[in-house]
């Protein structure tokens, strides 16, 4: 089982990525705006009917990431949405 993940508001993302998982500060810091924006599409699928002849329906879920030069990759889907509203 994966360890529990702490939830936080997207506004905190820029401050949170400045630190590694062990609590140490990332040398040189991270500017998410300068990291390459990438996209991945996942699908949420469910059976529409049960039994014979059932149809599986799927809807796309777009996930956005920032890939930084230091190897750090951060999901920024909510953060990008929040930034686009300003």
Automatic annotation (TrEMBL):
The record's section on InterPro entries has:
Mitochondr_Som1
Q: Name one Pfam family in it.
A: Mitochondr_Som1
Listed name of the protein: Uncharacterized protein
């Amino acid at each position: 089982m994966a360890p529990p993940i702490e939830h936080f508001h997207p506004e905190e993302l820029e401050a949170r990525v400045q630190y590694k998982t062990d609590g140490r500060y990332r040398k040189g810091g991270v500017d998410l705006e300068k990291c390459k924006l990438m996209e991945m599409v996942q699908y949420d699928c469910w059976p529409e009917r049960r039994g014979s002849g059932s149809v599986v329906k799927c809807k796309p879920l777009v996930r956005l990431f920032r890939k930084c030069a230091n190897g750090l990759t951060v999901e920024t889907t909510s953060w990008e949405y929040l930034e686009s509203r300003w």
